[in-house]
Write a structure and sequence with these properties.
Elements lengths: L14 H12 L4 H10 L6 H29 L7 H16 L5 H45 L5 H11 L3
Helix pairs in contact: 1-2, 3-5, 4-5, 5-6
């Protein structure tokens, strides 16, 4: 991040106004809207200077924020994320991927989180299907045993019941 020139408009903005401008940029506002906001306080700031301020100061701050968020997300367990949170992470990944100068490591961390959450959903679905299949197999085995009891000896029935306990 370049140091602001002492005679620049940005360097002479009051702290509350500079914070407001930064927040406007973080929320995706236009240069023109920033120009209008500072004009409310009687400050004239050219669009070119606003663009330079954005590229030299705001974008690096945004990149730092993204890295911090990615580091925090990387420490989170994907199990705790609901669908809305995952969708927000996906959108962030898309925004980062399309932004110039994005950090590939940050993108990888975020994508790994999304992939991990998707894998957990698949694993939960597989477990549910396996439980359903096991319940169906147990029911079929019990039905078979009940129908077989009619013509089998007590020893054979006891052996079959013992084997069914393994299910």
């Amino acid at each position: 991040m370049k140091k602001l020139r002492q005679d620049s408009v940005a360097a002479n903005l009051p702290p509350y106004l500079r914070d407001a401008v930064d927040e406007m940029f973080f929320s995706g506002t236009t240069y023109k809207a920033v120009q209008e906001r500072v004009a409310e306080d009687g400050i004239t700031w050219s669009l070119t200077s606003i663009a330079q301020y954005y590229h030299n100061h705001v974008q690096p701050l945004m990149a730092t924020r993204r890295k911090d968020i990615a580091a925090k997300l990387n420490k989170m367990d994907a199990e705790g994320l609901d669908e809305a949170s995952l969708q927000a992470v996906r959108m962030t990944v898309f925004d980062l991927a399309s932004a110039p100068g994005s950090d590939p490591k940050t993108l990888k961390i975020l994508m790994d989180l999304v992939i991990k959450a998707q894998q957990m959903k698949l694993d939960e679905r597989k477990l549910s299907l396996l439980e359903q299949k096991a319940a169906e197999a147990k029911r079929l085995a019990e039905d078979t045993l009940n129908s077989a009891r009619k013509g089998l000896s007590a020893e054979t029935i006891a052996e079959m019941e013992e084997r069914l306990k393994l299910l």
